[in-house]
Amino acid sequence: MMRLLALSLLVMAITPTAQADDMKLSVKPLLCITDNRNEVCEMSFLVVWESGERGYYCLFNDYGEAPMRCWNEEREGRLSDDRAVRETFSFWMTGTDTADRLAEVSVEVLRMDSDDRRRKRRTRHVWDIN
Amino acid sequence: MLRQLIRLALLLIAFLAAPCLADEEAEDAQESRWRLGAALGYGIRSNPLVQSDDIPIVVDLDIAWFGEHIFFDNGDLGLTFADNNALTASVVARINSDRVFFGNTDRRFVDFDITGAPLAEAIEFKPPDRDYAIELGVEMLTGGNWGALQLTVFQDVSSTHEGYELYADYSFGWRQQRLYVEPSFGLSYKSAELNNYYWGVTPEEAGAVALPYEADAGLNWHARFMVGYQLDRRWAISLVAEYERLNDEAAASPIVESDRVIGWFAGASYRFGR
Asked: Which of B41, B66, B83 is facing A119, going by the closest CB pair?
């Protein structure tokens, strides 16, 4: 009996709330590459979310404190976001409690060129790639 | 005379650069000093020598460390003495790359001579061996939106071939997000001493199969084309093809059967710590 109780407590501890667990957030693309010629990534991000239950949800990103958009009594939504970025940033969804992130996705900005010319010197590597 | 001048210039540069060592600064938080990677795939680099095997490429490691002035790049040791908006110049010590072909030769019985005429008795023949040479030189790198240019001059300091090499390579990289394309081409002038050490045949090495041969200075040229596709932060796939035309003096050697070196590689590469 005690073992069953302990197992139940463990399951409760590792299982997020139903709302958080049901929230699915996807962003495309997830990787943006910059170099010396294009130091800024100008991309159109498609953000799609889906929740297990209808409710009030808001989409945020690192570029503002205010939500990008909120949906009321919805269980799914999408948004196209045109943006110029230089650094890795995140999109996340919240419910009514905006401090509680239900789902979060990071968009990586990868800088391929270095300011150090020596890193581009020709070596004997046949496969040599950035 | 030229050799002495190059040695003198290198000594002077090393002397001038010495104070830079004391200024070695703390690690840059923005970019790791290390560049560690590995590539797995398949490729081949052809071997121009007679009775030789092509050089397979299955796994290739990339190990480099770049300090403010000192750097190590896959066997090359460098000391950067000038770095500004126009160029980056370093003194570099390296091992000559021509030697690599001589480690992939075969001993075979041959029953015809250099003219193709049959021999009375088959004789054993193996292309002569050559030593690695340690070379010291100056490397200058410059670049911009127009591309990247690498100029080097290297002199043997190990008394192996006692020659020098002048090298120039131009590359232009073009990126469309994950896709990267980089064609490059260049020239390499090999002095008579260098060329003759690696591609010549001494009277002691000569026989019925290979007559004595003395190679003079010559000019190699090369072209390379690389396509890469970045899968994520660390993984990329790449396809590289390389063509090098040996200088006529090397190509005419009796131990050389092809005047070109063709290399290609296709595989996946992983960059640690990015």
From this structure: B66
What is the value of pTM for the model shown?
0.80
> Which chain B residues are closer than 8 Å to A119 by Cβ?
35, 64, 66
Chain A residues near any Cβ of chain B (below 8 Å)? 29, 31-33, 35-38, 108, 110, 112, 114, 116-130
Q: Cβ of A33 and B88 within 8 Å?
A: no
Q: How many residues does chain A have?
A: 130
**Could B141 and A117 be called an inter-chain contact, meaning their C-beta atoms sit closer than 8 Å?**
yes
CATH superfamily of A17-111: Macroglobulin (MG2) domain (2.60.40.1930)
End-to-end CA distance of chain A: 59
Task: Show residues of chain B in contact with A32, CB under 8 Å.
Answer: 177
The pLDDT of residue B60 is: 86
Length of chain B: 274
Query: What torsion, rounded to 10 degrees, do the Cα atoms A77, A83, A87, A89 define?
Result: -10
**Residue A13, phi then psi, degrees to nearest 5:** -70, -40
pLDDT band at residue B83 under the 50/70/90 scheme: very high
pLDDT reading at B26 higher than 80: no
pLDDT tens across B124-150, in order?
777 889 999 999 999 999 999 999 999
Mind listing the pLDDT tens digit for each residue in A89-126? 999 999 999 999 999 999 999 998 888 999 999 875 54
Would you say B20 and B69 are in contact if contact means Cβ atoms under 8 Å apart?
A: yes
**ipTM of the predicted structure?**
0.81
The Cβ of residue B58 has, within 10 Å, a number of other Cβ atoms equal to: 11
Backbone angles phi, psi at B94, to 5 degrees: -150, 175
Residues of A in contact with B238 (CB under 8 A): 127, 129
